[in-house]
Amino acid sequence: QVQLVQSGAEVKKPGASVQVSCKASGYKFTSNGISWVRKAPGQGLQWMGWISAYSGSTNYSQTFQGRVTMTKDTSTSTAYMELRSLRSDDTAVYYCARDQRHALDIWGQGTKVIVSS
Amino acid sequence: QSVLTQPPSASGSPGQSVTISCTGTSSDVGGYNYVSWYQHYPGKAPKLMISEVSKRPSGVPDRFSGSKSGNTASLTVSGLQAEDEADYYCISYAGSNKVFGGGTKLTVL
Q1: How confident is the prediction for chain A on average, in pLDDT?
Q2: What is the pLDDT of residues A4-60, one digit of tens each?
Q3: CA distance to A10, A48, B81, per residue, from A82 (Å)
Q4: Between chains, do A44 and B2 touch, taking CB under 8 Å as contact?
Q5: Do B101 and A44 touch (CB under 8 A)?
Q6: Is A88 in a helix, a strand, or coil?
Q7: Distance between CA A57 and CA A39 in Å, rounded?
Q8: CB distance from B60 to chain A under 8 Å?
Q9: What are the pLDDT digits (tens) for B64-73?
Q10: Rounded to an integer, what distance in angstroms lies between the CA atom of residue B80 and that of residue B14?
Q11: Distances in whole angstroms, Cα of residue A8 to Cα of each of A81, A109, A111, B73
């Protein structure tokens, strides 16, 4: 079946970086883009950016520009999101989602990232 | 703060209808027919309920419908059921990026 499976939970110290992976299966990886969304405690969903699984071109939210990098590995059908210079308010659940005509139709299970000293 | 404005809460009794609004600008909601709605239970992944303003994905009950007028999109849940109690978010394409609403907590009384 069509699914996105994300990497496991992470605990990081302030100032560190985190990389979350998102492995796609059940569809042609390069046919769609992947968006990344996060949900911080007590906050709403927040769109972080998008990567074309075909070309690797990216669009990042202004909020994260300069701190986030999204990449993909077509050979393993995997997308990656790296967030740098982590702060305590980056503590959140991070989701990847398949982007189908600007709607996010398939979601990963989420990856919890805790930033704490 | 979120770019799209949603009411923080909405409620209705079982069987009633509830409409949740999502207000943006001509640069997002009003400029494109790419508004989608998501149902989110705490601790679970969000679920797509409506795409492209009013398209319902396979498996989504026809009690859920979407519409748009000008810079405001709406999600209507008819025949409310207990399991509809969740957070609902709108998202709109906005050129090179996407923008979310702040979310609406739907309570079934």
Answers
A1: 96
A2: 999 999 999 999 999 999 999 999 999 999 999 999 999 999 999 999 999 999 999
A3: 12, 11, 40
A4: yes
A5: yes
A6: helix
A7: 24
A8: no
A9: 999 999 999 9
A10: 5
A11: 13, 10, 6, 36
Helical (H) or strand (E) element with A106: strand A103-107
The pLDDT value given to residue A29? 95
Report whether B71 contacts B23 (CB < 8 A): yes
CA angle B48, A92, B9 (to 5 degrees): 55
Strand partners, B68: B73
Mean pLDDT of A64-68: 94
pLDDT one-digit tens code per residue, B78-103: 999 999 999 999 999 998 889 999 99
Q: Do A101 and B57 touch (CB under 8 A)?
A: no
State the DSSP string of B55-101: BPPTTS-TTEEEEEETTEEEEEE-S--GGG-EEEEEEEE-SSSEEEB
Strand B98-100 to A111-115 pairing: unpaired
Q: What is the mean pLDDT of residues B23-39?
A: 96
- Picking from B38, B46, B40, B45, the residue whose alpha carbon sits closest to that of residue B75 is B38
Say whether B102 and A44 touch across the interface (CB within 8 A).
yes
Q: Of B51, B98, B100, which has the smallest distance from its Cβ to A101's Cβ?
A: B51
Residue A44: closest CA among chain B residues belongs to which residue? B102
Confidence band, pLDDT 50/70/90 cuts, at residue B2: low
